[in-house]
Amino acid sequence: MITSLLVANRGEIARRIFRTCRDLGIATVAVHSDPDADAPHVREADTAVRLPGAAPADTYLRADLLIAAARAAGADAVHPGYGFLSENADFAQAVLDAGLAWIGPPPAAIAAMGSKTAAKRLMAAAGVPVLTVGADPTEADLPLLVKAAAGGGGRGMRIVRDLAELPAALAAARAEALSAFGSDEVFCEPYLPTGRHVEVQLMADTHGTVWAVGDRDCSLQRRHQKVIEEAPAPGLTVRQRTELHRAAVDAARAIGYVGAGTAEFLLAPDGRLAFLEMNTRLQVEHPVTECVTGLDLVALQIAVAEGEALPAEPPATTGHAVEARLYAEDPARDWQPQTGTLHRLALAHPHTEFTTGGTPAGLRLDSGADDGTTVTVHYDAMLAKVVAWAPTRAAAARRLADALGRARIHGPATNRDLLVRALRHPAFLEARLHTGFLTEHAADLTAPDGKDTPLAALAAALADAASRRTALPSGWRNLPSQPQVKRYRAADGGEWEVRYRIGRHGLDAEGHPGTRLLHSAPDLVVLETDTLRQSFHVAAHGSGVWVDGPNGATALTALDRFPDPAQRTDPGALLAPMPGTVVRTAAAVGDTVTAGQPLLWLEAMKMEHRVTAPADGLLTELRVAPGQQVEPGAVLAVVQPA
């Protein structure tokens, strides 16, 4: 029987596993890199072991350090979570060789699915349908998807629509795959831009029982990474669902699978199913399955590792659950990851954390961050997963959109607005889903909506004045005077100037005729325009101001009244949009470049980001080289416009 468990991971999944361990009476051990020294998962564990360093390669990817940590802390089991070494057969074997219990499938099963190319051959031999392309693709095979054989998460993937682009795509995918997974093996498969990503949750014991624990749809993706997932997968026929579950169980039996895993499939527009891959671990989106089945999948993983037998059949699903991944990124700026301090992350509605029961609201929050957490460049940009359950799909989507819209999220920019819009989009509500959904509807989902910014800026200025209030109201004069002036920059880059007076007759704000000030405090401003009364909750952290109003949230930056001329940047300078590492360059000083031409790539938060020429011209400076770390705002290169 397991008495102490080490989670060889960090963040949200570590906290999720610790929650189940507390319920089961199992002691917990955390590991942490130096940037994670004060992370929530470290504070919650009974024991924590330091992994010196910051980069994953020096910390969470060091099997020897993880096993040494388990021994030092007296753990008798290791749970890998997801990501990092969770699908590394050598790590699983090393854990077993150290005399520790491994909360996962046998190393041989992990190895069998470790290469996507080998997995496809194995599945084809087992009679599971697969997507394949010959060794020499032709025009008839287009479009193609180049994929890394040893990895996932969207890394090492390229879409090819012209055979002339294939050599460059293969080279780029190999380079990224080698950097991310230690293997440069890549392969091609047909790319179905309107296919659906559906998957089956598997659970198997050591006594021959294999469960297909319902299915999920994970079609809403950006950069081949999931954003919104739901269970069960909507719109499947009885035949399709039966075929899907049977293929998943056949895949698990073919490799002697044990524990939790997921078989992923592509559903073509014509209804054909094809095996994509098997994830030999717990999935990020497992909470939606827990919500519709009432199961604790982590508890089942532990029970199976202890030799317990599963019942003959899994429980039936009830209702519908939808999960949204909240990322620190800016969808309107090519999904650039964002860093900084997360000052606040809170749902306004009652909810549970890391478990499905106990609240009538049907809301669950799984997060690796809390108030004050620093979001760094070293790890994935996901801040939290918000999950809603309801008797119907439409009700679950509405509940989730409302919970996200009302959440207080103060810190780096996030994809919150995109998630809310996607959940309310008619195509989503009608279950017209496919992996290109976010691209197809990008104009609707990412278009700036600054209609509430002027009133939010006024509320911010009034809250700021209230925070400076002494005996008399700020701005009060016995005689008429110049208006109070405050300037803000909105998230879309627009600048707003607030000009107002407060006199005998109350508020007189330029651009806001008929607006009355009913209440002002540093954290709350209540305004009435005509007969419409609106409350604005205001939070200021340094120059950042977050205004949560009845129609959503507005992030502002308070600007100095007299900007510093020294902060101006020469035209043509390319600034680092985020902290990161230069992974490669594609131009040299003296080259003639064209607008939009890639000049270099930055890696941050497990993603690569292109930095392109802002205009046609001459590359006069290139100040960075591959491997170099850069900070936000650093000058990377200078292009002299033609």
Lateral strand order in the biggest sheet: 13-12-9-10-11-14-22-20-19
The counted number of beta strands is 39
Report the major sheet. 9 strands, mixed
Share of β-strand residues: 25-35%
Instruction: Let me know the average pLDDT.
Output: 91
Summarize the entry for a quick read:
25% of the residues lie in helices and 33% in strands.
Structure description:
With 642 residues, the chain is of the alpha+beta class. It is 25% helix and 33% strand. The protein contains 16 helices and 39 strands. The protein has a nine-stranded mixed sheet. Strands 26-25-24-31-30-29-28-27 form an eight-stranded antiparallel sheet, with helices on one face. The chain has a five-stranded parallel sheet with strand order 3-2-1-4-5. Helix 4 (89-97) packs antiparallel against helix 5 and helix 11 packs antiparallel against helix 12 (416-424). The chain is globular. 47% of the residues are buried. The mean pLDDT is 91.
Describe the structure using short key phrases.
alpha+beta; 642 residues; single chain
